């Protein structure tokens, strides 16, 4: 998908709204119009109107519907599509968010003149993890290795976004008990997998020194974090699946990417500065995709004042924090098509979150 | 409370956070420190951490708790406190909002030199409405009259915020049936009362010409609206209770007020412009209070793209829209102590909403 | 599917739990074991773990997943499966309900000896309705006609359950306006379609005299109702799709069906009496399927005492009423595999609901 | 309140519905009619229409409103009322439950002839617990001691219900850390306090042998449980407050009490057997109060089939389990005035729950 050698590559992206989780019309239209070719699609990243929790079946519905498009157009089985294309759907379009999908494709670049650094992306996989490795340095190191491998393969010199589906290897009851008795209780849950994945990204990009990390530092020292990670963890997955987005001078096309990190969910100035760097204004048609993480500050306080997201037993704090970050981001971009997913352990500082924008170069 | 004659008045305001709906410690502290005198308090406007709906009992708890403070300090009964001081609590602190209260007081101004226009406020009441008047021109006209009366009494030359508890006179089943048969079905519910109250404010301020209005225009022509109204309606209330906030050259003190209207819930630039006019920046300690209305655009679309607030059967659109406007407003102000209440018929354009800020003058 | 002529038919049913809306393993197992033949399946009726509201996508996911089973096994397109097999999924497994599916099949009866009345079922369709017919006598009459046709075709002499997907024909804005001006506002929404469908069943079974009905009686006189209807209405559907379950002396097999109606949601004695008539006890392995409707009493009162299902703005009354009826029904049956769907206009008395049980004959 | 010596006592109870958490009209009416005397009231146990969670302020509102009644009628301060009368409100009236209160009073019995065992009740307190004692045998033992003391004082020979507000002593961060390092992490949270309180009741009543218990058995061996406990735990409370309800041959009056335990939430037969023992039928006017605990089976399974209460991220399992047990109980009693509170560690078997009924003797 990201051939090495002398073929110059370029990325393309098409963003389309959906009328429901299974609405593939926008993708079909992109294929019909020639804006995208089915064979060049590398990944789909989309928001669906579910609750983002355990009983959110909108993601499964979307995967099923979009997979069928590729099955039919490429003559593949569902398993083959899964192998070939990352279908990454995140539930939760609280507040202003328009359910939408961004399809990314990689193809040979017909252009020859170098254009300056351009968006480059590639897909990778970690090795399979054993249950006792999840949430520990083994996961951090292997995640860093896999990211570096993709970045190197794609000629990415600056990483801006690492979209990950984090592994959570299942364990037997006996294994769980044994680990507990050995004083090294298993960490194979979503919190730990997201945390270790983010630190893996931080090591790969050099934001955190490998030497500063240890098993005991994970989920303890929140001053260590990545500003490019975006990880959701998935029980039962043994290998972390990842897409690295960055810039490469060797790629063509018209897309560029940059990122920032919010110090807290009200940090609009960080968004403004990022937009200024990219030269985009509110409502700018050059904007192609916006990605962010969100977290209700676990300390229960924002700018020195109490918030109630964590003490509300009617509505989950995950829904509130997505709603907040999406509203702040969309109000700066003048565009409600923003991707915000929640839970952000070691993704930016405590209560903060990474944001990445993909835009068409001027 | 707003004596005419030669005594120059000034307004004061104290804002304090609460740890729960019945937490009166902030108010007590303001009295203890001398920042406020119990006898000069005119109204309390606060946000409580309820759902803002029918089964939100946080408002009643807050009213009960704060009333008791005044009962004890002023030697009054609960009924006398209710007569004397407007206790206006709104449920719903979704997302970033800090539960908080702003207490406004009016007192003689010891200063003598004119200071330029200052915040002036006064309380008023409409006459009692009959059920068939609610939501019709009778309510519009009487509301306009009551607002004008307060503004005149207080020397307010520019109105910036009209906080109203709108009347919804109860009707017997027979009266309801009779009205229906007469082809003039009763409108005595929250939607119509808010709408007529807002149009009353629009007439009082001259934003809408009286001649443009008629019974059939209410809740029909959304191009007619107030930019200063903030009305909640309350079943069983026969008279609309209102507090008019504006500016007067005849008042002293250090507070000023200004307002704007959002064209939609993402309209951060309108907030920025208002802040610029008032000379406040993000995180500015001069900010004393921020008030807004919110509404999930009833057309289901925002900037041309679908939103899902109206088709979510798990969480009410009222909660989403408050969360969104509060996040946008707080992200510009750098302050999560914002008052946002929902449902905004004829309060700004469809899908938009009024915003008012009270700040300390430089 | 229900051949006439001299071939004696029998019905079969297989009930299986699901681990999620797309879990087809139980159906596949029934096919593998020979308990059912794919070609003989007439309908699937199932509960999925969604919210049962507008943003419940579990039904679509289930339909998609189960359709694919038949597509593959019978070599059909999705459209052909839809034409051939009723896939009826209802969201909402609040409280004790196990997400589960009942597959009904009709096949030639190898047995020859008459066995006494047995479960007979058949599928039917009304003609397409125009928008102005929905919720009026045109819908009632055509629904009654279609039910009668199926019952006659299947030799059903007593109807016990009419499972319907009620039509809601879409209308243009102009048509809507025209109807309003003509003083006959359109009724093309879910409430009216369910109401007219239920009254259609009541007419077909003779529970309500046709002469007692008129457009103005629908959704007005709640003393008129069906005890066998179970209708969900679906916007955009122009023809009502229905499955009639009853008993016929001409059918074989081992299944029988009977029904009752709850006078209110606490009416456990009605369930006990129905169980006694069928000779089933709590936990009886002879029980094959249990179907019920539910409704939070719209008067806000139950046995003379207030309930809070209608004034709760956090959780919909539809979720509460399903939870309640399912708990009461499951506690009598000793079995949490119960199908309860909500909203019950003219389905039993106000605040009550029909219940039907399918059991294996002794 | 429960004088020893030769004065024969009797209990009285009045049950009344409320129109909201602060509706004291039913209590006032009981005082006006002479059904109760304010000075003889020992405790109020009520259900309010909140969510039963952290942001449920209906309990505080009810306590405040009912306390004021006693303050006024008895000339006491709020603190004195709190000292004298147990005001026990539980949030959550999901489904059929009518918000209601039962007021229990104890007074000299004017009757002289012995009547057979009658309801006797008394209030008690444990000593203050240190944080490290919560959830351990120290709490179990002291709770058992306090219950025994009350039972002895009141001449209770069979205990049927122990209503407890369980202590959760606060701890400093240092204390917490020290305990963790010592390998005895603090258990000062709601789960552990409820568990230890229930086991205290089990020891007091002899249902569980003291010798079968140890720190490590708590929250581990679910086969050990009380059938009379009903404990809610309250952070910050240092002493467990408890009301023991039982029968005594030395008491007069017309009330009797009995209890049972549900093996799971569908165990209607246990309720039927209890009703038979007490001679009450559905809708019986002799019924005075019904109390139960509830729990969504933590194993995710009910009668061998999956339930979805624990995997729903929209609605808490506490709300579902209360809704279910209340529906089952009310459907047997023919009465929606049932008190069900949730979370039932060591309160009956796993997934089951205690039920107690108070009725007027025949």
Structure description:
Four copies of one chain form a homotetramer. Chain A has eight helices and 14 strands. The first copy, chain A, has about 350 residues and is an alpha+beta fold. In chain A, the strands form four sheets. The first copy, chain A, has a four-stranded mixed beta sheet with strand order 1-4-2-3. The relative contact order of chain A is 0.17. Chains A and B meet through strand 12 and helix 8 of A and strand 12 and helix 8 of B.
Write the layout of secondary structure elements.
Four copies of one chain form a homotetramer.
Chain A: E1 9-17, H1 25-33, E2 41-48, H2 58-74, H3 78-84, E3 86-91, E4 100-108, E5 118-125, H4 137-154, E6 158-168, H5 173-181, H6 190-205, E7 229-235, E8 241-248, E9 255-262, H7 268-278, E10 287-294, E11 301-302, E12 305-306, H8 317-333, E13 339-342, E14 353-360
Parallel strand pairs in A: 2-3, 6-7, 10-13
Antiparallel strand pairs in A: 1-4, 2-4, 5-8, 6-8, 9-14, 10-14, 11-12
Helix pairs in contact in A: 2-3, 4-6, 7-8
